[in-house]
Amino acid sequence: GEELDSEKVAAQAGKKMQVAALKKDYRSVLKGWNVVKKSNFVPANGVNLGEVVLALQSFKPDKDFVVREVTAFFRKHSSEFGIDEMNELLEILGRRMDSGLLEELCNQMPDLDIEPNVRTYEIRMQLQFNLRDFHEVRALDVQLEAEGLDRSSRVWITLLKCALKENKFSEALTAFAHCSGLWKNSSDSVAPD
C-alpha cells in the first residue's frame, strides 16, 4: 500500500525531472528533487545528479549547500549510489570546469565510504589539465600511485599532453611509450580525448 505509493510518487517525480531538465526548467527540476530526496526509493529511471546540481546552482549557487544536498542523497541511497554514480557527476562537473565543487565532492568521498578509482583520477587530471594547472595534474598522479592504482591510457595521455605543453620531451616520450604499450596490449579501444 503505502510503500508502493511512495515508490510511484518517486518514479513520477523522476520522470517530471527528466522532462523539466530537457526544457531547462530548473524550478521544476528542484520540485522533483525535493520529492525524490525525501523518498526511500530511487526512481527506476535514475536521477541525473548533474541536472540537479545545475538546478541547485541556478537558484542557490552556494557550493557548501550543493555539497550537503548531494552527500545527503548519497548517504541515504548508499546501496544504489557509489563510485560509478559519483564519477558520472564528477565527469559532468569536469566538463563544466567546476573545479571547486568537483574537488569538494572528492573531499567528501571518504565520509561516504566511496573509494576513488582510476576513472576518478582521470576526470580530475583532465580538468586540471584543461585549467592549465600542470602542477596539480602531477600531484594527482602522485596520489593515484600512492593509492596503488595503475595508470590508465587516459591518465598517460593527460601526462603526455602536460609534458608537451611544458616542453618536457623526455617525459612526453615516456608517457607516449606507456600509452602505446597499453594500446598494443589491450583489446579495448581507448581513443584519446
How does this model look, in words?
The protein is mainly alpha-helical and 193 residues long. Helix content is 72%, strand content 0%. It has ten helices and no strands. It has helices at 2-22, 26-38, 49-59, 63-76, 83-95, 99-108, 118-130, 134-146, 153-165, 169-185. Helix 2 (26-38) crosses helix 3, helix 4 (63-76) runs parallel beside helix 6 and helix 7 packs antiparallel against helix 8. The N and C termini lie far apart (50 Å).
Beta-strand percentage?
under 5%
Largest sheet: none
Q: Give the mean pLDDT.
A: 86
User: Structural class of the secondary elements?
Assistant: mainly alpha
Q: Please tally the helical runs, counting DSSP H or I stretches of 4 or more residues.
A: 10
Oligomer state equals single chain
Radius of gyration: 19 Å
Give the proportion of residues in helices: over 70%
Write a brief structural summary.
The chain is an all-alpha fold.
Write the topology of this structure.
Blueprint: H1 2-22, H2 26-38, H3 49-59, H4 63-76, H5 83-95, H6 99-108, H7 118-130, H8 134-146, H9 153-165, H10 169-185
Helix pairs in contact: 1-2, 2-3, 4-6, 5-6, 5-7, 7-8, 7-9, 8-9, 9-10
